[in-house]
Amino acid sequence: MKEVNSNKQLDNMLRQALERARQDTKKQEEKREQKYWSEIKVPFRLDEALSSYAKYELDDIRRYLEIKNASSLKKADLIALFQQEIPGLLKNVCSQWDLERFSLLVKIARNGGYLQAPELESDQIMYFRKTGMLFTGSINGKRVIAVPDELIEEILTLERDLHFRGIIKRNTEWIKLTHGLLYYYGTLTATELGQMIENYIKEPLRLHDYIQVLHDSDSYKKGIVSDDVGYSNRRVFDPKRVKYEHQARKDVPFYPFTKEQLLEAGEPSFVDRNLSYIQLVNFINQNFDTQKLDADSIVEECVYATRIGQSLNDILQYMSGVLVFDSEESLQALVDKVVNLMNNTKEWFLKGHTSIELRNLTENPVNNTTIKVGRNAPCPCGSGKKFKKCCGR
């Protein structure tokens, strides 16, 4: 009895600690929101806007702008330095941007220095604030995003620069192609990414410039994870496993997506809704009570589960947690639709091929290119069986 009471006491303490942590987080978020959207007056000068920043926020700007030999400066001196340096750094900063960010900057400048704030994630607000060029606040209770008066003409001059607009277009293409490649292949090394991007844009790529643009883009809008393996789609939880599976199929070429397919897949909200995907969504909507469910989200989870190498049983276990089966027939019909989806899903382990495509490629190689697979090696189709007991029979 003493042990039971002790466990209950421990559980209560744990719940209380979690609740305190939740409340603390909520208070911090509310405090940050209040700071981000406090009342401001427009137009304003750069030094006026920066004076409302704490010293640690100014240090964030200094680090982002890579201003050297200024870490020991006091707040007033740092603001004076920024006022001198930032207008000249505008072009350099924006040369890392894509069309989404630069278009927003131009809209603000054209509107006299401020604009009603679009829907922005917390990370995006923090990103803009640390540039030292865009500021957030409220005017008559309405949230706005604004630029200092002395930057307006500089921004409009950049917008008229055809060469600079070409850089923005290039960056946008680099970013979308990268997101598209990682959507379908899961994980790639920096070298692989560079080579693939170069092949699609049909011109030499300066890897250093490309990587800089990629990292700056991800600071603005999270979507890519980088580590010692390389770069991964944010849904990849084991990049080493993906690269291991790629190496296990070293004689299998990456699926040859078109440039248009990758640019489409590079959009933030893109989901590859092929025929098998749509059929499963329709089946769920027609046969299950989906008033409280989102059939599209359920099927999207099944796709990602397939991409990370989960089995049919794993996926069915997930679906049994969200769907209620009223008969054996409905369960079997669902299984058939799920198997069809899995067979037609582009998999990370299979270098962007579906299992059917890779099986056909193994059995019927094209262009006289033979895919050599050892008899005891894992079958390239992704079945998990040895080649001799699967496609090699």
What this model shows, in words?
The chain is mostly helical and 393 residues long. It is 58% helix and 5% strand. It has 17 helices and 6 strands. The protein has helices spanning 2-36, 46-50, 55-65, 75-94, 99-110, 122-130, 152-159, 162-185, 190-201, 207-220, 239-248, 259-265, 275-287, 295-307, 312-320, 328-343, 355-363; strands at residues 114-116, 135-139, 142-146, 187-188, 224-226, 231-233. The strands form 2 sheets. The protein has a 3-stranded antiparallel beta sheet with strand order 1-3-2. The chain has a 3-stranded antiparallel beta sheet with strand order 4-6-5. α3 packs parallel to α4, α8 packs across α12 (259-265) and α14 (295-307) runs antiparallel to α15 (312-320). It is globular. The mean pLDDT is 89.
Global morphology: globular
Kindly report the average pLDDT value: 89
Query: Helix share of residues?
Result: 55-70%
Main sheet: strands, sense, barrel: 3 strands, antiparallel
Structural class: mainly alpha
Tell me the Rg in angstroms.
26 Å
Which stretches are poorly predicted, pLDDT < 50 over at least 5 residues? none
The sequence of SSEs as H and E is: HHHHHEHEEHHEHHEEHHHHHHH
Note the beta-strand portion.
Answer: 5-15%
CA(first)-CA(last) distance: 63 Å
- The tally of beta strands, per DSSP, is 6
> Order of strands in the sheet with the most strands?
1-3-2
Number of DSSP helical runs: 17
